[in-house]
């Protein structure tokens, strides 16, 4: 496919945008008019800059409030169009986007709209330009693609065609199925946008909250499937109005943009291949990466430390019931184990971990995920524009393929074939394999929670979907005493791998302060499962672990909200354990106090098919943490 | 009036909130349930803390999803209510807020709702507690106060009354006039909230975007007038769900909150006094401050500097056509003049200005506004909880009363009786009174634009309304290459005093970077009027002033948007002058390059009754500034 992006989707000056777009591997751009109006150079100069970057200008946009106007306005608009055509000729833009009229002066008369668009197309044809007509979701008389297509058919001019934008169709809950019946060559251009489901005015939604395909809640794959069934062979483009993208460094946004198109193509390719209806003859080549990896849980979590903090962290892990079970063959790296959980503390000088330690203090620097075919997983990641990471490997050590996650931490793909301990038996000199006296009954890693900067949430949602094959859950807003937290879980199908993405909208919450200590994309807590939380908590307290205290009032309130057995309520109250219930099951959990500037642990017990993270209880935890520093 | 505020309106732990509320002079609180659930103390302990702070708990809230339920749920809810009544008794809260049911289980049956509320009130009465019923704007069957009042009348229980919230009425555009007919003693509690007019789901609007009275667009005065006409004598309270208040240090928010109530009372008092309808006998005493001052423009702008930067700034002012006309009698302070504009450069060691210089660099540290009665203006400001500022005064100097604006700059009130130069003749040794050779034809200060942190916009809107008697205009969103800017003008009735409040939603715009250099509430540009912008710009260029260059494409585009005479367009293109047109007149303007980290000047010519600030052209300026550092 010819892949393009509208300049409005990125931050920066026009030149900076073009450089970022070219660097991310796009083929072309949609030029947003305001970017040209404020550009200090001529159309011919822009043409040269764009060409030198290996790009084409595929579309000039938008041309507004044209069709269905009274005669006086119509003639004035034709004049306006001629001036835009002058520019398009000079910059080499072959197509202009004419969006449906929003003016109160416009009349609801498809025949007039068609006649006026015919005249516009005739003017364009004289210069060998083309006009694409698009239904805006908030167009005054034309808001759906079927209406726009009706007008284009009535106008019946070879230089007039249809422009489709997934946002305008999916935001109105319009059915894209009819697109497949439109002749592909009459669709002149396709813009893809995703969006979170929001209850707001569609114009505000469109102008501020669109996102790249795979970052939102729309069925963009279903939309694009219909476009391909129509036989469309033109550019695949992104037109994203997003307040956060306006602020985010544009190189990062451009990489996300390209990843979103590759993901969209590959998902749509799969859907077409699996579809029952006979597809049109394949007229375009869709991106075909290795399949998303089948992951089966976290093999290990690696912490970056120096000698001193490694000792402190080791003592803390001891309190949590972990036992030191190995030393690395060649490096200052220690292995801790409890149940099926492995923690690695890496204090090796001159290592990747040490760089992370120096930048962010004691913090998680890598996750090890188990998978059947690590090389295929890295192949998928590379195809989806993630960077591969190769560490130096010593003698008698395994090479575990790794990639760089957004924010700079590593994700290692650990071969399942190694079994539970194979990796550690090879790389480590194991000291003791049995459970220690301090074992607290922690069995596996339930989830890892990341604290993200506001502009990283969409990046992570797309990364985890496209690269790791995870799927996002519901997006929640939680009240911290000093601001709101947005929280979203992502998990694989069998729930053996769960990540929770937390964003602080405020700079003053603990989540935000953790970020400033440990950098964006930082792990701010690790949740560990157990089979009997009361037994585990008792053992952990005996080991010296301190938990965040929970107000008695929480339990009084809980009893009015949920029908909990009185004896269970009493045990939870005594132990300081929090509780949540869904239709499928229960969640019992408790949080430790923070270690070294932020990181803390959660102990959890899932009962039945409970599939969330006790987010409703996070405010109790955050309020308790906020009360921590002072006597209250 | 008994003044109260809901704890949900402020950030912090419950204890921190209570301390801020008490410090701001409130009489009582609404206790938001989640604040108590997460409070680490008993209800009795809370009662003691609140009493020690001199506060009362006037309301416990909310009690949800009660009325109109099937029998099973109803009995469960009564149990839930008894547990809440236990708490209320222990903490000394006399009244609970029961908001209209949003549950899909509820039935549309006012008689059943009334019977169930009667039973709830009966239970409350046994403990001498009361129940207030409130219509939520998104209640499933009851969303308007008239419906809630109908149910309260049917229930007919002395311990059941109505709770009114301006947000729920005004957000639905419901008419508050009917409130005056409700017996005042059946209104148990009144919550006041303002809000900006937003096109979004009313629940999202209510949960995230309410503001204090005077900060939004609702006619809160008209609402409160009806409440008083009803004969209401209970608490006047604020229940504000606002994302930004959740993040803002709560002492500042609490002062804004108190100011908003004082402003609401005084405005409502005036409206009642001026009303035609015979008011009820005055049953409560409303706040009665000195009237808002009649201001008549800016007398001077004062810059903070040290010796070196004073010289640099002096040279810049020289380029702008200003002439040094005086030295202060006793301080290192210099006076510059052009037309009716006075700039003061204050480099006096150990002065307020020097403190500002050391904190924020060369920057505006004070505005002098002309007014008829400066002492009354300071009295108004003090009554509205602004801090008075007294500077040391030397021999033969005038004492000009001053107050501290949000962010720390000063506003001096200069007596009109002094005439144009009286102040300067007294305090300065004047060197030369005539216009110099470099005079560029600048005549007066058009407006002063402030760069504000996100959490300061509402504070400033309320400050300028309540303390200075200005009125806000439209709120606009403008695109900077690195993020959005929100901009709102405030002005007095005759437009002799105009301020523009700009907020950067992004950290990466020039506006945001100016803030980080010069502190919140900083002046980022000063607009100066002239009578012939082409003549003035030519003279300024001859003096060495450098202006932000504007793209040729801007003028090509302007010609397609607005019908400007070709010769005027050509002159603007040549001079780099920007243009805007309203129905009332035209605005021609141009921006200088930035001085010393941020501050710049605008030169403007207003033609006819143009009443805005050329905001549509701000993106052209911001894009140009963004292209400044690099060759483009």
From TrEMBL, chains A, B:
Reaction equations catalysed: 3-dehydroshikimate = 3,4-dihydroxybenzoate + H2O
Question: Know the name of this protein?
Answer: 3-dehydroshikimate dehydratase
UniProt organism field: Variovorax boronicumulans
Q: Where is the VOC domain?
A: 297-416, 444-593
Pfam families documented for this protein:
AP_endonuc_2, Glyoxalase, Glyoxalase_5
Which regions form coiled coils? none
Concerning its family, UniProt says:
Belongs to the bacterial two-domain DSD family.
Q: What is its EC number?
A: 4.2.1.118
Residue sites binding a divalent metal cation per the record: 134, 165, 191, 239
């Amino acid at each position: 496919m010819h892949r393009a992006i509208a300049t409005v989707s990125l931050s920066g000056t026009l030149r900076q945008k073009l450089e970022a777009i070219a660097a991310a591997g796009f083929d072309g751009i949609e030029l947003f008019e305001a970017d040209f109006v404020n550009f200090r150079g001529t159309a011919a100069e822009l043409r040269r800059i764009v060409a030198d970057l290996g790009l084409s200008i595929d579309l000039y946009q938008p041309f507004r409030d044209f069709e269905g106007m009274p005669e006086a306005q119509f003639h004035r608009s034709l004049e306006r169009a001629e001036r835009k055509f002058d520019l398009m000729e000079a910059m080499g833009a072959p197509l202009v986007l004419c969006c449906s009229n929003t003016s109160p002066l416009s009349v609801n008369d498809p025949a007039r709209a068609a006649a006026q668009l015919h005249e516009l197309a005739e003017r364009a044809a004289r210069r060998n330009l083309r006009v694409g007509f698009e239904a805006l979701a908030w167009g005054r008389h034309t808001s759906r693609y079927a209406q726009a297509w009706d007008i284009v058919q009535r106008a019946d001019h070879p230089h007039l065609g249809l422009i489709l934008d997934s946002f305008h169709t999916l935001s109105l809950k319009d059915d894209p199925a009819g697109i497949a019946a439109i002749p592909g060559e009459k669709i002149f251009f396709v813009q893809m946008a995703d969006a979170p489901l929001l209850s707001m005015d569609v114009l505000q939604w469109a102008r501020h909250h669109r996102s790249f395909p795979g970052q939102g809640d729309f069925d963009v794959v279903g939309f694009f499937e219909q476009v391909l069934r129509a036989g469309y062979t033109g550019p695949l483009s992104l037109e994203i109005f997003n307040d956060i993208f306006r602020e985010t460094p544009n190189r990062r946004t451009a990489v996300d943009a390209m990843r979103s198109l590759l993901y969209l193509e590959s998902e749509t390719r799969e859907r077409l291949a699996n579809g029952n209806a006979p597809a049109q003859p394949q007229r375009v080549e869709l991106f075909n990466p290795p399949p998303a990896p089948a992951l089966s849980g976290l093999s290990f979590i690696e912490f970056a430390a120096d000698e001193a903090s490694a000792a402190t962290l080791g003592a803390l892990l001891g309190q949590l019931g972990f036992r030191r079970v190995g030393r690395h063959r060649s490096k200052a790296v220690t292995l801790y184990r409890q149940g099926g959980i492995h923690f690695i503390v890496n204090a090796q000088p001159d290592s990747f971990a040490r760089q992370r330690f120096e930048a962010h203090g004691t913090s998680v620097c890598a996750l090890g995920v188990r998978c059947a075919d690590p090389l295929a997983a890295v192949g998928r990641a590379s195809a989806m524009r993630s960077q591969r990471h190769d560490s130096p490997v010593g003698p008698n050590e395994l090479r575990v393929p790794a990639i760089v996650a957004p924010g700079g931490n590593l994700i290692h793909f650990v071969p399942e074939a190694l079994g539970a301990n194979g990796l550690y038996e090879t790389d480590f000199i194991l000291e003791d394999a049995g459970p220690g006296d301090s074992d607290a009954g922690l069995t596996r890693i339930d989830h890892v929670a990341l604290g993200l900067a506001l502009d990283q949430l969409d990046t992570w949602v797309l990364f985890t979907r496209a690269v790791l094959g995870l799927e996002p859950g519901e997006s929640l807003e939680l009240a911290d005493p000093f601001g709101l937290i947005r929280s979203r879980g992502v998990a694989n199908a069998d729930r053996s791998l769960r990540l929770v993405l937390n964003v602080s909208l405020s700079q003053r919450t603990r989540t935000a302060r953790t970020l400033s200590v440990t950098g964006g994309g930082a792990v701010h807590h690790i949740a560990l499962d157990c089979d009997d939380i009361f037994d585990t908590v008792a053992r952990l307290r005996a080991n010296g672990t301190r938990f965040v205290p929970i107000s008695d009032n929480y339990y009084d309130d809980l009893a009015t909200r949920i029908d909990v057995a009185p004896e269970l309520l009493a045990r939870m109250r005594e132990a300081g354990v929090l509780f949540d219930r869904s239709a499928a099951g229960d969640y019992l959990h408790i949080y430790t106090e923070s270690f070294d500037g932020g990181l803390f642990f959660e102990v959890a017990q899932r009962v039945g098919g409970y599939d969330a993270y006790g987010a409703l209880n996070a405010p109790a935890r955050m309020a308790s943490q906020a009360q921590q520093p002072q006597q209250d």
